[in-house]
Amino acid sequence: xxxxxxxxxxxxxxxxxxxxxxxxxxxxxxxxxxxxxxxxxxxxxxxxxxxxxxxxxxxxxxxxxxxxxxxxxxxxxxxxxxxxxxxxxxxxxxxxxxxxxxxxxxxxxxxxxxxxxxxxxxxxxxxxxxxxxxxxxxxxxxxxxxxxxxxxxxxxxxxxxxxxxxxxxxxxxxxxxxxxxxxxxxxxxxxxxxxxxxxxxxxxxxxxxxxxxxxxxxxxxxxxxxxxxxxxxxxxxxxxxxxxxxxxxxxxxxxxxxxxxxxxxxxxxxxxxxxxxxxxxxxxxxxxxxxxxxxxxxxxxxxxxxxxxxxxxxxxxxxxxxxxxxxxxxxxxxxxxxxxxxxxxxxxxxxxxxxxxxxxxxxxxxxxx
Length: 369
Ligand SMILES: [Ca+2]
Fold this sequence. Notes:
Layout: E1 10-12, E2 29-37, E3 40-45, E4 51-55, E5 59-63, E6 87-92, H1 96-99, E7 101-110, E8 113-123, E9 130-138, E10 151-156, E11 162-166, E12 185-189, E13 211-214, E14 218-224, E15 231-236, E16 242-247, E17 283-285, E18 291-296, E19 309-314, E20 317-325, E21 328-335, E22 342-347, E23 353-357, E24 362-368
Antiparallel strand pairs: 1-2, 2-24, 3-4, 4-5, 6-7, 7-8, 8-9, 10-11, 11-12, 12-13, 14-15, 15-16, 16-17, 18-19, 19-20, 20-21, 22-23, 23-24
The structure holds calcium ion.
The site of calcium ion (CA) has 5 residues, from loops.
Keywords: Oxidoreductase, Signal
Domain Glucose/Sorbosone dehydrogenase: 37-365
EC number: 1.1.5.-
């Protein structure tokens, strides 16, 4: 599965612009950086430049700077790989260079059903295996029915805390509004998966103290804005109503009480699009784009893109570039509409963008000037 860059076709980008959408302003090339990955979902660059990437059926691999894909790592925990579940996100501890610690978010089958699980492990020095993989948090309660909406994105904050987005598991019972339930939330955690003493609901009886924000449907995008320090999040609505939110501690983001979308059969959900006591999204997509992973661009390779939030969209496929000012979205450009379903976007240490495609024969695309 070795793919030397020299042997790869280079494409001149000619993104199609839909009605009312801006043409691509910044020229870039698309390089097929790596291939042969089955439904890659999440990734993290190691300090040595290699990319640790998950495959949804339950694997982890390392992709070298030359695009060579390693054999699956050993010591990886089992996952529940049905429906939208599987091995989903991976993140490095902030002190990875010395601690070798990584975090995995994945679906897991336990007594009572399936849930979103956070697992901690160490990456062996040779990069071929995980050591000591152990679960540190289950987004309880598990659910017998359904294998969708796990959420499952991990982000570390400038405050040193670990944040985990969990889905509401697509049930009629509104889990997202229950504070004794870890589904449909963004959680704020210590490195061992425990809640932090200064969490917004700490010490409240009957409430899970891990909860940072609630009222989320299926959040798969989570990234700190490096300029404002705020935590940005993207989540799927039902039919329409996909959202970008700026998360404030203890706030309620509304699902399923308010949404800009409707149900898949066209029926109304909840009470309308907004309510004064519920947080409104800062950006909404109707019709849906199915936003998964997000990344702020801070690199030097594309100076015109600095300050943008990139969003990998599954359906219709594309890479969305949101221009921002402070904690606001000021514009949107749609790129890569013809490259298949896009699962997530990462900024590489070289300032290039790396995009994981959601395909059985999945690829990593590299955008470079
Ligand atoms: Ca909302």
